[in-house]
Amino acid sequence: MLTNLTHRQLEAFRAVIETGKVTAAATVMNTTQPSVSRMISDLEHVVGFALFERRGRQLVPTSEALALYEEVERSFVGLAEIARVAEDIRDFRTGSLLIAGMPALALKFLPDVIASFIRDEPGVSVSLRTRSSQAVLRHVSSQQFDLGFAAIEAEHPAVTRRPIFTASMRAVLPIGHPLAEKAYLEPSDFHEQPFVALGSEISTRSETDVFMAAGNARPRVVAEAQLSASICELVAGGAGLSIVEPVTAANFAVAKKVVAKPLHPEQPFQYDLLLPALREPTRLATRFLELVDAQFARLLDG
């Protein structure tokens, strides 16, 4: 085995083959002519046969050199491809993200972030699965998903959970409703008003019930729905008032489909980021989370 063979010798050999001159090869390699001549001499010593014949000012490769060049060229092409892939990974020109999100974020908020992300990183593919918060936790615990977005208090040993954003829940009203003139809504404002409620199995429903009870308010429940987006559509259609998490309320308010108002007293709502605990976040995931933070700030801050 030729243990003294070096990559630099092969680089010099390849350059001389392709340029036909030691001087030109030295320029290509950004080195001196004597250095290239020495590397060629060393390579001939290592391989045990002549590589070039001198004909005037030209170096002509021997048949053995041409046979060797075919293998050298293949190896350089392979190295170039490895370098290209490494650059693509470094510059986010390739890769994928698998994301699971609760409906409150996966129906509008996360698609907006993903659209911005793939505009910036067109070589990256993103897959978004819309699931309940409990299902998001299960998906991320499999270690197959890069990121999960939920609102959940449960823990899992294979999942790292951390708050990503907290904001107050919002009252949502049909456009033109008289209460839309108020700066904020209190429990008494909902008394005997037609109200679209979250399904009784949703944890936030009990918090809303406590909010109403604090002011002895008894709204008239005319409909129930599981998703904040469904509730906002019902409100937009004039079915009644409601209280939903802030991201969906803000998205519908921006679309001018409902009016969103703060509550007094406030009802905080926390969105959670779920990460696979058995591996570090990828560089792509970290970059994506920067855009998530920026989107929260644009939509809800102030």
Automatic annotation (TrEMBL):
Residues 5-62 form the HTH lysR-type domain. One of its GO terms (biological process) is positive regulation of gene expression. The keyword Protein biosynthesis does not apply. This is LysR family transcriptional regulator. Keywords: DNA-binding, Transcription, Transcription regulation. Belongs to the LysR transcriptional regulatory family. Transmembrane segments: none annotated. It comes from the Bacteria. GO terms for molecular function: DNA-binding transcription factor activity; sequence-specific DNA binding. The keyword Transcription applies.
